[in-house]
Design brief:
- This protein has a two-stranded antiparallel ribbon.
- The chain has 4 helices and 2 strands; from the N terminus they run H-H-E-E-H-H.
- Helix 2 packs across helix 3.
- Strand 1 and strand 2 form a beta hairpin.
- The termini are far apart.
- It has a single domain, classed as Non-ribosomal Peptide Synthetase Peptidyl Carrier Protein, Chain A.
- Helix content is about 70%, strand content about 5%.
- The protein is mostly helical.
Length: about 130
């Protein structure tokens, strides 16, 4: 069983996963600092100095920390956006590595508005 475990760990997928988890944990700390130390004070300026982490309400003995939830949502959105940009970039790089042409952002060009109006005018004159 120990030999099988060693083979499993030695495979690339397990090592990649471990590296991803470690980097993800470090990245989470950076995003937490970004939200708590930069984003929240900036938003506080625009909404009257409100600190999200202080927003809460109580029912009986239960305390509902809405501000902490808002902070978690902001952190999630930032992390999701960064992961999206990372995956998007990796996909573009891998397509170029396989020899595929990069996608063009331009739509196919058709006749201009002036050319269409000229065709309509000429068609009306022909009647």
């Amino acid at each position: 069983m120990l030999k099988e475990f060693r083979e499993f760990i030695a495979r690339g997928n397990a090592m990649d996963l471990a590296v991803g988890i470690i980097i993800g944990a470090a990245f989470t700390a950076i995003v937490s600092s970004l939200v708590e130390d930069l984003v929240n004070p900036l938003l506080g300026i625009f909404i009257g100095g409100i600190d999200f982490s202080a927003i809460s309400f109580g029912v009986g003995d239960a305390q509902f920390m809405i501000g902490n939830f808002i902070n978690a949502v902001i952190k999630f959105l930032i992390i999701a956006f960064v992961v999206f940009m990372l995956v998007r970039t990796i996909n573009k790089i891998s397509k170029l590595g396989r020899g595929e042409a990069p996608p063009t952002e331009e739509a196919p060009k058709g006749p201009t508005q002036e050319e269409l109006l000229t065709e309509i005018r000429d068609a009306l004159r022909a009647r």
